[in-house]
Amino acid sequence: MKIDILTLFPHMFDGVFQESILRRAIDEGKVNIHFINFREYSDDSHGKVDDTPYGGGAGMVLRCQPIFDCVKSIRTDDSKVILLTPSGIPYKQEMAYHLSNEKHLILICGHYEGFDDRIRSICDLEISIGDYVLTGGEVPAMVLVDSITRLLPGVITDESHINDSFHENLLDYPTYTRPRVYEGMEVPEVLLSGNHEDIRKYRYEESLRLTREKRPDLLEK
Ligand code: ADE
């Protein structure tokens, strides 16, 4: 999979993709990530990417031109153009599964007060990572890249996906490791039984119980 990230602040991504599973996925060529500073596409002699809002109001608004030209130059029939915005569709694990099947993602990170609304016209999808406002789309883009990359074939084991929270709208079951007793807290007996069917049943019931307790909204789906 190829991912192009359109951002005015590519250095915000330093470090995030240089450790652990994401780094390995990049090194092994499972995902190909490019940062494009769309300021380079500005037709303004000073590289201006924003302007004051029509009608007045606080802050600056991202102009159409640099982003339109940038997207036009990299978009192909295989591309999915995604705008990160708090007014987008709430991001869910199911969406990560769908997006992990795409060949080419173009992620547009807004910044400042907002962007010219006409930028929406060149996007296939608008995504929000939650009901709060961040300083820009960079952190949301990191969230998307992380959640999608781990689903790409060979990045982590298939079994790990099946056990993920939100798989079939259930939270993950609790896990334990040695020691058997820690500060008086014991590992549930059934996990030591070696009976795989009992363990499977216990885990499913724990998933159900936790989901009912913490996220009843998931069960309604
Ligand atoms: N940009 C600023 N806040 C955001 C959010 N919550 N989700 C996606 N993009 C954003």
Summarize the entry for a quick read.
This protein has 221 residues and is of the alpha/beta class. The chain contains seven helices and ten strands.
Present the secondary structure layout.
Layout: E1 2-6, H1 20-27, E2 32-36, E3 50-51, E4 61-62, H2 64-74, E5 79-90, H3 93-99, E6 104-109, E7 114-115, E8 125-128, H4 138-149, H5 158-162, E9 181-182, E10 185-186, H6 196-214, H7 216-219
Parallel strand pairs: 1-2, 1-6, 4-7, 5-6, 5-8
Antiparallel strand pairs: 3-4, 9-10
The chain binds adenine.
Adenine (ADE) is lined by residues 84-86, 88, 128-130, 132-134, 136-137, 140.
Report on the structure:
The chain has 221 residues and is α/β, with parallel strands linked by helices. It has two domains: 2-157, Alpha/beta knot (3-Layer(aba) Sandwich), CATH 3.40.1280.10; 163-219, Orthogonal Bundle (Trp Operon Repressor, Chain A), CATH 1.10.1270. It is 30% helix and 19% strand. It is built from seven helices and ten strands. It has helices at 20-27, 64-74, 93-99, 138-149, 158-162, 196-214, 216-219, and strands at 2-6, 32-36, 50-51, 61-62, 79-90, 104-109, 114-115, 125-128, 181-182, 185-186. The strands form three sheets. It has a five-stranded parallel beta sheet, sandwiched between helices. It has a three-stranded mixed beta sheet with strand order 3-4-7, with no helix packed on it. A hairpin with a 2-residue loop joins strand 9 (181-182) and strand 10. The protein starts with a strand and ends with a helix. Adenine binds next to strand 5.
Core attributes:
binds adenine; 3-stranded mixed β-sheet; Trp Operon Repressor, Chain A; 221 residues; 2 domains; alpha/beta; Alpha/beta knot; 5-stranded parallel β-sheet; 7 helices; 30% helix
